[in-house]
TrEMBL record:
Taxonomy, superkingdom: Eukaryota
Rhodanese domain sequence ranges: 112-201
Pfam families: Rhodanese, Rhodanese_C, UPF0176_N
Species, as recorded: Coemansia erecta
Coiled-coil residue spans: none
InterPro entries in the cross-refs: Rhodanese-like_dom, Rhodanese-like_dom_sf, Rhodanese_C, TRHO_N
Name this polypeptide is given: Rhodanese domain-containing protein
Residue segments, region Disordered: 313-335
């Protein structure tokens, strides 16, 4: 709690950091934007701090000229919502961490004798717009279901398992669980697709040989970052090739879906219902006066394939008439 208050105060005020930080007993997960000129101050701050000194974390840097976040939010939350309490003992069984270069070369070598078991540990909406060639992408909604699929896929505990996720955190937890269950050969991509994307972008000639194709979904307002130019997905409204995620402009809908520029214009940046178009036009004051509950629950909000009719317009559910007062939930990594 003390640490949370300290980070909230000192980082946002003195270091102009914005982003999202989760703190729990096992560690800290942070996605931050910081002005370049303050990075050395951040390092000095970490080196001087009793909690961090002697164990400065590895950073996953990305260079962007616009900020991905508006403010700094620090919250107490488990590292990965596993649905069960993990002991520090279980977490001490670390998987093998491969750098993007090692990941590439080991996958290539293993692929010579057939497709190795390569598992995408992210959400279904994430792998729609980008994934590693040959990856198995379990279409599940929770970490617990994901682990069940992994165990199912990997009968031989000696067989290599390659796992990746957005930033590497989910895989370090999943890898520790598998190792503690006796899986011997668990390899994870260190720093996740974020690190791999940086590796590709640093050397544009790697674009053509990248094992990852398409965009990496990001949990900020950009909703994605290009790794290679291939477009893997289609517009949820017209079916044309497109990999730009958006949220319906009506905040109480907030549906997450893929929308091409011409559909964005046609449907006024909404999911296409008259209801959402009307609300998207309302002023902040009018919206406050006419508060309504969130239209979709988390699971539906990220499953546009269940929402859109053949005309490319969302089907508004009866829950609009329900009386629960709910704020739209921010999008987060899979719980
Ligand atoms: Zn379209
Ligand atoms: Zn909508």
């Amino acid at each position: 709690m003390q640490l949370r208050d300290q980070l909230q105060k000192e980082w946002s005020r003195n270091l102009e950091i914005v982003g999202r930080i989760y703190i729990c007993e096992q560690g800290i997960n942070a996605q931050l934007s910081i002005p370049v000129e303050n990075t050395h101050k951040l390092r000095a701050w970490l080196e001087a701090h009793p909690v961090f000194c002697g164990q400065i974390p590895r950073f996953n840097w990305a260079i962007e000229h616009r900020k991905a976040f508006k403010a700094l939010h620090v919250r107490m939350r488990p590292l990965v919502a596993t649905g069960a309490d993990l002991s520090l003992d279980e977490l001490s069984h670390e998987p093998e961490y491969l750098s993007p270069e090692q990941w590439e070369s080991e996958l290539r070598t293993d692929s010579e004798s057939g497709q190795p078991l390569l598992i995408d540990m992210r959400n279904s909406y994430e792998f729609r717009i980008g994934k590693f060639d040959g990856a198995v992408c379990p279409d599940v909604d929770t970490f617990r279901e994901e682990m069940a699929v992994v165990r199912d896929l990997c009968k031989d505990k000696k067989e290599p398992i390659y796992m990746y996720c957005t930033g590497g955190i989910r895989c370090s937890v999943a890898g520790a669980i598998l190792k503690s269950e006796g899986y011997e050969n668990v390899k994870t991509l260190q720093g996740g697709v974020i690190a791999y994307g940086n590796h590709i972008r640093e050397h544009p000639d790697r674009q053509t040989t990248s094992l990852f194709k398409g965009k990496n979904f990001t949990f900020d307002k950009r909703l994605g970052e290009e790794v290679t130019a291939e477009v893997l997905s289609r517009c949820d409204q017209c079916g044309g090739p497109c990999d730009t995620f958006t949220n319906c402009a009506n905040r109480s809908c907030n549906l997450l879906f893929i929308q091409c520029p011409s559909c964005a214009e046609k449907h006024e940046h909404t999911c296409g219902t008259d209801f959402c178009k009307d609300r998207a036009q309302m002023s902040h004051e009018e919206l406050i006066k006419n508060r309504i509950p969130s239209i979709w629950n988390y699971h539906l909000r990220v499953r546009p394939e269940k929402i859109f009719g053949p005309d490319g317009v969302a089907q508004v559910p009866p829950s609009i008439a329900s009386s629960d007062e709910l704020e739209p939930q921010p999008l987060e990594e899979k719980a």
